[in-house]
């Protein structure tokens, strides 16, 4: 039972930590960040199992994390208003070709990263962009002024 309690505490801590770190960090990991997360994973394992190297202890810890993930997913489905708290909501970062610097600062999104994401989607100039949305998963969606005529998906409702 102690392993389950430890797993719950560590799961909640990691959820809060990933929400605090910010969604841009989750979009793409640098080599350093990947190494950091792998190291954190090992430290978390030690904290959860408290040096219990048995198969049962490991399965119990992993099962607890899996159940908590399913519960969190179900909670978001059942109570849609909690989705913003659990995973965040999309944020407008460009409007009419102009970066919204206050939002970018709050989301810790560097201007260079915004431009790199635009280039990855074939956008040469932010002036071509009607809106850009920082999605909850850390990716940036760009909508150009001519998207409405090209049959592109509707722009999301962002806050």
TrEMBL record:
<dbReference type="Pfam" id="PF04239">
    <property type="entry name" value="DUF421"/>
</dbReference>
<keyword id="KW-0812">Transmembrane</keyword>
<dbReference type="InterPro" id="IPR007353">
    <property type="entry name" value="DUF421"/>
</dbReference>
<protein>
    <submittedName>
        <fullName>Unannotated protein</fullName>
    </submittedName>
</protein>
<keyword id="KW-1133">Transmembrane helix</keyword>
<feature type="transmembrane region" description="Helical">
    <location>
        <begin position="53"/>
        <end position="74"/>
    </location>
</feature>
<dbReference type="GO" id="GO:0005886">
    <property type="term" value="C:plasma membrane"/>
</dbReference>
<comment type="similarity">
    <text>Belongs to the UPF0702 family.</text>
</comment>
<dbReference type="InterPro" id="IPR023090">
    <property type="entry name" value="UPF0702_alpha/beta_dom_sf"/>
</dbReference>
<keyword id="KW-1003">Cell membrane</keyword>
<feature type="domain" description="YetF C-terminal">
    <location>
        <begin position="79"/>
        <end position="147"/>
    </location>
</feature>
<keyword id="KW-0472">Membrane</keyword>
């Amino acid at each position: 039972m102690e392993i389950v309690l430890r797993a719950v505490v560590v799961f909640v801590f990691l959820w809060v930590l990933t929400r605090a770190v910010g969604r841009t960090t989750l979009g793409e990991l640098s080599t350093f960040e990947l190494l950091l997360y792998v190291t954190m994973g090992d430290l978390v394992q030690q904290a959860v199992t408290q040096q219990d190297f048995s198969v049962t202890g490991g399965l119990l810890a992993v099962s607890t994390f899996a159940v908590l993930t399913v519960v969190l997913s179900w909670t978001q489905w059942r109570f849609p208003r909690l989705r913003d708290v659990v995973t965040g909501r999309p944020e407008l970062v460009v409007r009419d070709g102009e970066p919204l610097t206050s939002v970018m600062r709050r989301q810790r999104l560097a201007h260079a990263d915004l431009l790199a994401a635009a280039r990855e989607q074939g956008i040469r100039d932010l002036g071509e962009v009607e809106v850009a949305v920082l999605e909850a998963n850390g990716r940036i969606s760009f909508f150009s002024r001519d998207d409405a005529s090209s049959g592109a998906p509707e722009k999301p409702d962002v806050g």
